[in-house]
Structure formats: C-alpha cells, structure tokens
Design a protein that fits this description.
The chain is 49% helix and 16% strand. By secondary structure, the protein is α/β, with parallel strands linked by helices. It folds into two domains: 152 residues, Rossmann fold; 224 residues, no CATH class. Strands 6-7-12-9-10 form a five-stranded antiparallel sheet. Helix 4 links the parallel strand 1 and strand 2. Helix 11 packs across helix 13 and helix 12 runs antiparallel to helix 13. The longest helix has 43 residues.
Length: 416
C-alpha cells in the first residue's frame, strides 16, 4: 500500500506503519500512547483479529467442551471491545478518517500434510469482521470487508486442490496473497481504474486522462507528442505475479493500465519509442483497440516505477527491522521476563541485557529470538537515531525517484 500511495498519488504524505507482528487489538491499546498517538494520524486503517481469538482454543482435543466454547466467545468479545476503544482513542486524537478492515483468512480449507487444522477459527475471524462492520456502521466510520472475498478466493483454490494465497502455517499470506489483499482494498477504496489514458487520432485529435499532451505533431506515418503523466503504474512482485490466477492478474492490470490508443492509422505495424527507448510494435488494429504500457518492462515509466518499488521495499524492510521489530521485541520480552521470574529465574533490569540472556539461552520461539536480535541491533538510542537518518535518506531517494518527468512519445510506421 505504501508503494501504491507513492506511485499513484505522488506528493502525498507517506503512510506510517504502526503494526507489529504477533500483535492484537488489546496490544495496540497497550502501546497506543507511546507508539501510535505521537504520529497524530489524519487517516487510520485498523485491522486486527488473527491473534485476538486465541487459536489454541480451537485445537481438536478442546473442541466441543462447554468451557472452551465460553472461552472462545470471551476472546471474541474482548477483541470487539478493544476495537471499539481503539476507535474512541483515534477519534479523541483528532483522526479525521478511520477505516476498519476485517481480518485476513485462517486457511482451514486447504489440507496440508503438516500441522493441525484449527477448524472453526476462520468462522471466528468472520465473526470479528462482522463486529467491525457493525462498529463502523454504528460510529459512522469506514469499513472494508477483506475477509469475505479473501476467503472465497482461498476456498476456490482449495477446491481445485491448490494452496495459492496462504502459507503452510495457514496464517501468513504468500506474496500472491498480499497482491490479492491489495486489489481488494484498493477496489474498496474506489481507486480509479488505470494510471492514465491517451487517445489520439491520425487527423490530429488528442484526449488525455490523468495526463497532459502537448506539442502534438503528425506527419505521414509518424506521430510525436510530449506526455506528462500524473502517476506511475504499480509493479507486482515477480513471485506474486507468477502465482496469480488469471482473474487476479486481470484485476491488477485494470487498476494499473496505462493505455495509449491511436485511431485512423493506415494499415501496417507501428513502433512506439518513449524518450528514444523502443517500447512496443503493434498493428494499426492493436493501436486502435489500445495498447497497455504498464506491464512492458521496456517502457521508461515502468523502469522508473520498478526503481521506486525497490526503494520503497527497502524502506519498509528497514522500518520493520529498525522500528517495528524492537517494539514487538519489547512486548514479548515483557512476557518472557514475567514467565522467567515466575519460574524462579533471575532477569536483568536492563532490557538489552535481558534480551542477550534469552538469546544466549537459545530457548523459546525462534521468531521471538530474532526479534530480540533486532532489539540489540536497533533498539538503543544511538540505533534509533541511525535508523531515523537512514529512513530520511531513503525518503529523499524515493521522492527523487518518483518525480515524473515529461516524456517524448514517437510512433512511426515500422519499415522492417
């Protein structure tokens, strides 16, 4: 989504990622004042649920017991209450637009060889999503139903004996799952279809949508014009695109197409160059139907968008490792220290020393131990200053890379 914001709406303030892995709505409340409120967001997207319903309650050996059913209901009710409080706190902060998003999918529909399948947990997520929708309607804020179309896509793939969207842990979306989520959310937000559209006629007429055309000249079998787009196409990752079913690819193309249409050409093949770069050769019939440049790796605007995506992903990874993971590590460290004390162990008062102790012991969840390593690397005051400087440098590089130049388009009849 950060990628989309930068490419489709250049100049907008970038999103701030306040999420941490393994968190819940209650966890967000616990860190709200220190970690969310300082940003004073004008717009907030809120999605929780996967970690809120206590998946352990859906293990087979617990299924059907009255006490377990009560605990499940209590977990969902606690989540719903935390979501309502989050909305209240964001409103009190002055956030003008709040959009709730229903949770992602727990893949209980695909049969993996490894791991237990917690049948019923996805229904719990659906229930949390319905509660979020009711909360949005009750409070007059926005809502995006991510869960329903995501679940339908997962079920369709499962019926075909495929596991396309979610990994074997049944929780974490694969790259193509993230692409699906992006399409669902962007469509729900009413994102305009297409980056830009240009329509020309060999007699000299020209129309542009989300772009401007100047200096149009037409000679025999040749058209030239200066083109200034107001946006860039978004680039799907290679892994996501390779795994995406045809309908998902079509939906992404519809959101990102950059169409050039030329009517009235004489019969033959015509080559387009952009800033001197040979981009595509198409027949007069294909030009009349419209040629999409957004997926063409030779198009300079696609090359530019790819570089912006690379820089944006680098910024996102540094944000996660340098800012979000230390925040998550402190949450887990608090719990681990509490557990160690209850077992009679000695815990250093300093969080860095405590993290080193848990890493040295090598016990516990490997993912959490990796979080502790990021806390050691980035969590100190000096580490945070360095991370902030690196993020500022990346921001400047992204701004420079995303500046859309005026381009020169030339279409000539191919003599080959």
């Amino acid at each position: 989504m950060t990628d989309v914001s930068t490419l489709r709406w250049p100049g907008r303030r970038r999103w701030v990622n306040c999420g941490i892995s393994g968190d819940s709505a209650a966890g967000a409340l616990a860190r709200f004042e220190a970690d969310i409120a300082p940003h004073r967001p004008t717009q907030a997207f809120v999605m929780f649920g996967m970690n809120d319903g206590n998946r352990g309650l859906y293990e087979r050996h617990l299924k059907g017991t009255d006490g377990n059913a009560t605990a499940r209901s209590q977990a969902i009710a606690a989540h719903n209450a935390s979501m309502a409080t989050l909305v209240d706190r964001l409103r009190a902060l002055g956030t003008r637009e709040i959009i709730l998003i229903s949770p992602t999918v727990y893949d209980q529909y695909t049969r993996h060889e490894a791991g237990d399948n917690l049948i019923g947990y996805d229904e719990a997520l659906a229930e949390m999503g319905a509660a979020a929708q009711a909360l949005a309607e009750r409070t007059g804020i926005g809502f995006i139903d991510l869960h329903t179309p995501f679940r339908e896509a997962v079920q369709t793939e499962a019926a075909a004996g495929q596991a396309t969207y979610i990994g074997e842990d049944r929780v974490h979306p694969l790259p193509v799952g993230h692409l699906l989520m992006a399409v669902i959310i962007l469509e729900a937000l009413g994102t305009p279809a297409g980056v830009a559209r240009t329509e020309l006629h060999a007699d000299g007429c020209a129309v542009a949508e989300n772009a401007t055309i100047t200096d149009l000249t037409i000679t025999l079998n040749r058209l030239e014009w200066t083109y200034a787009a107001r946006a860039l196409p978004c680039i799907a990752s290679a892994d996501a695109w390779a795994a995406a079913p045809t309908p998902l690819q079509a939906a992404w193309r519809a959101l990102n197409c950059e169409i050039v249409t030329i009517r009235g050409l004489a019969a033959g093949a015509y080559e387009l160059t952009v800033d001197g770069q040979r981009v595509v050769i198409a027949t007069e019939a294909e030009w009349a139907a419209g040629v999409d440049l957004s997926g063409n790796p030779r198009a300079p605007q696609v090359v530019q968008a790819t570089e912006v995506s690379r820089l944006t992903e680098a910024r996102q990874q540094l944000t996660i490792a340098g800012l979000r993971n230390p925040t998550a590590a402190r949450m887990f460290l608090k719990w681990d220290c509490q557990g160690l004390r209850q077992r009679g162990g000695v815990v250093p008062e300093d969080e860095i020393a405590a993290a080193r102790q848990f890493i040295a012991a090598g016990e516990g969840n490997p993912y959490i131990l990796d979080l502790y390593k990021d806390l050691l690397k980035y969590g100190s005051a000096a580490g945070q200053v360095e991370t902030a400087a690196q993020l500022a440098a990346l921001d400047a590089a992204i701004e420079q890379a995303a500046a859309i130049p005026v381009r020169r388009f030339v279409v000539t009849k191919n003599s080959d």
